[in-house]
Amino acid sequence: MINRTLNAVQTILRKNAAVSLLGNGTAAIISLTTTGLLARWMPREAFGTWVLFLVTYTLFDTLRSGLLLNGMIQYTADLRVEARTFEASLKRWEGAVWQLGLLMTMVVGPFLIGLTYYFPMISEWVGNSETAVWFWIISLVSLPANIATWFLHARSQFKPLQWIRVLTQLVFLLLIIGCYQFQLFPGNSLYGLFAVANGAISLWSLFIGWSRWRSIPAGRTAQRNALFHFGKYTIGTLVGSNLQRSADTLLLGAILGPEAVALYAIPQRLTQLLDMPVRSVVVTAMPRLVKLQQQGKSGELAAYFQQSAGLLWLVMLPLSIAGFVLAEPLVTLLGGGHYRDGATLMRCFMLYGALLPLDRYSGVGLDAIGKPQFNLVKVLFMLCIQVGGALVALLVFRSTTALAGVSIVTFAMGMLLGFRLLKRHVPISLTGCIQTGWTELVGLITRFRHEWIRSTVKNFR
């Protein structure tokens, strides 16, 4: 019995979904630890400025990845089938990715520095011109590691990909702890530490060969054009989705300042722990949904969709309830006693966190049935609600609680729109998801209980 259990666990852990979940989970825990330490060690205003910087950097990284990653996956997948031994063709695609990545980074950095110099409102988002220079430096030194993750993703090599993500977070955390112990913290050195952490992992990626930098001269105009034209269709959805998550923070920093951002960031980071497993699980369902769609099995697609979405929602719901009930101790545990006021925000975030599984599944479902344009409409619809509601909450009520409440409305409306668009093509419904998910959950619990009883009786005999 023990050997069978261990073998089953090992089989599960070898799957890409499990590798992705473990890697993302480990990186998220390290990142959360870093956030907690910075919240305790930095003044609230300085911590809020750091959060705004991270939001801006993440948005740019999403732009860079959205433009190049999906196209790289698409075209190299074709190469693996049609030109497995044609290494020169692969190098041309890799070189084109490098060239476009370098071009984008070299252009955006100086552009942002100029914006912060001439437009004060932009400075409220990024910090100041000096911080914008750090933004450019970090974007450059992180590029080799990012490109390595794209190439590894294209080859479905998820283990080394997760190593890069985890080690980047771990090195940054260790540098912060070391500087704090030797009283060299914080100040602008925090940006330098972030640059060192990303640069160190990039050097490692270059040395070990994952970034394939020798392919840079091989890129050609045909590959660059193909990547650009493919990426411009996916970048809208990715950037819109990222903006929908970060617009409230950017507007909060511009209107109420970094201290309000710091208070808002602590419960928001805790809520992201719910989003991480949801994203990891939802992504693994897409290949089967696509296959069923291509086979014209709309009934089976609807059944699988409702079973998966409903089961995930029921599994994640107790975590949202626990976060709502334990909001104050959780916020205090992460940020310290001076962030206790964030408990109300945490409760608001847990309410929309309960909607995350169904919202994510509706978006993936639209992509799976070949309707990405509808997913883009859904994302832009949610972005409009988020930005409009955030402006009202901040300019009229000047309240972070009202701002958090806007997120509940945004995700609820986005989820309803997603299901309505899906229902035009696939026979699904919200009530069907809940009912089917409940039936599946009860069946899983019953099977587990019977297996446990049978094993116990067998061992007793």
Automatic annotation (TrEMBL):
Listed under GO cellular component are: plasma membrane
What compartments host this protein?
Cell membrane
Matching InterPro entries, A to Z? Poly_Biosynth_Transport, Polysacc_synth
Q: Does the keyword Magnesium apply?
A: no
Q: Which domain of life is it from?
A: Bacteria
Q: Topology versus the membrane, per the UniProt entry?
A: Multi-pass membrane protein
Q: Which UniProt keywords apply?
A: Cell membrane, Membrane, Transmembrane, Transmembrane helix
Spans traversing the lipid bilayer: 21-41, 47-75, 96-119, 131-152, 164-184, 190-210, 301-327, 339-358, 379-397, 403-422
UniProt keyword Transmembrane helix, yes or no: yes
Q: What is this protein called?
A: Polysaccharide biosynthesis protein
From which organism does this entry originate? Spirosoma linguale (strain ATCC 33905 / DSM 74 / LMG 10896 / Claus 1)
